[in-house]
Amino acid sequence: MIKKLILLFFLATTFGYAQHTITGKMQPAGDYEWMILYHMQGAKQNYIANADIKEGAFSFTLSDTLNVGIYRLVYDLQNQLFIDVIYNNEDIAFTFNPENPNHEIQFTSSEENKLYYSYLNKSAGIQYTLDSLQVAYFSTQNKPKLNTLYQKKHADLVKTQEQSEKQSKGKLAYHFIKASGRYNASQPIEKPNDYLKSTKTHFFDTVDFNNETLLGSTFITDKINDYIFYLNASDDYQVNNQLKKEAITTVVTKIGTNYRLAKDIEEVLLYNFTQQQNVPIVQFILENYYNKLPASYQDLDFKKDVEVKIKTAIGNKAPNINWTINNVKNNLYKLSESDTYIVVFWSSQCGHCLKEIPVLNDYLKGNTKIKVIAVGMEEETSKPIWQKLILNYPSFINVYGAHKWKNEFAQEYGVTSTPSYFILDANKNILAKPDTIEDVKAFFEGKN
């Protein structure tokens, strides 16, 4: 009896704390050395572990305390190559083509992933055919025949969706399958504009913005990005911005009072549009949405960083810089003798600066049409070194930038690294923000 109790205790312990694995095989193996495993939580990813890739194979043994959800396997950081898998307390095993991971993948273990990826493959193929028929319908002379073909494919897609939802009911995959269901009109739409309007109107029909499973992945973020950046786009700058504003308004309205999601989405959008230096859209998001979030959801440091970056966006007037030389006060805005100005932030303690600033000086030697305002970001301890170095650059306007990173001009320009270059026109509007001295040269040589 005691032996039986011990055996039962051993089995209960074994099953209660069973560990699971993720194993994969690349076909072909490719030239990849390691795989990194992350747990996705919305747009954020938390590092879990890393493993060596040997002859295309890798394996992870998962902790028995690991939460269920979406996990990302990254094998090429530079090119952003990865695979997302659903983990729900089961072993996961699969083979895939590392050059085409989402379309050439097969799971040998994990019912969750078998169901989800099977659904994606089936529905994507039918949807592609349906879209092709719809596009052909706009210009065909044989509409009855295309209509019949379209309705047949439409019925196939509806059946695939219903079957996949039924098969995955009760699993994590169900949430993603249901949310992936796309609206298609039961018959082809006559005009392209009406088709686009219908697609936009029904784009989020199946998405629950409060579904915790979806929120624990990049699904909603990806869906929103597709809607804003691809479905609402135009080659005309003004039209494109108007479409973006309308799309953002639609998204924020759909999100409603889910402030956690609103904060995440708005910060992603602010970051992206700041990178694009699209000042009107950044200001639109800040003024109409981000600034109106409850105070506890606003990241003031993030907002300040965005505001500084758009202040120095290309096309904007550069922030003013003041200096006093030989008891004479002057500033950037008063300068008028040159066609072009270069504002460069550098430091005597910066190795890259000590290489690039002499090159800048030599490159502009004898050029009276370009004036350099060189702000030396220094502490009092490095000031004597800076004072000695600037004797080599008599044609520059050398401005002492006290307090280094806390220097008021550096903060106005959003400087986070040295050297930082800003090329201005005669009116002090920002023309370019080159990364290196070679980029500075390329700018001027490209103008000629």
UniProtKB/TrEMBL annotation:
CDD domains (alphabetical): TlpA_like_family
Chief place of localization: other
SUPFAM superfamilies to which the protein is assigned, alphabetical: Thioredoxin-like
Keyword Protease: no
Localisation per UniProt entry: Cell envelope
Signal peptide: 1-20
Record keywords: Cytochrome c-type biogenesis, Disulfide bond, Redox-active center, Signal
Pfam families the UniProt entry points to: DUF4369, Redoxin
Residue span(s) of domain Thioredoxin: 312-448
Domain of life of the native organism: Bacteria
Protein name: Redoxin family protein
Organism, scientific name: Aureibaculum flavum
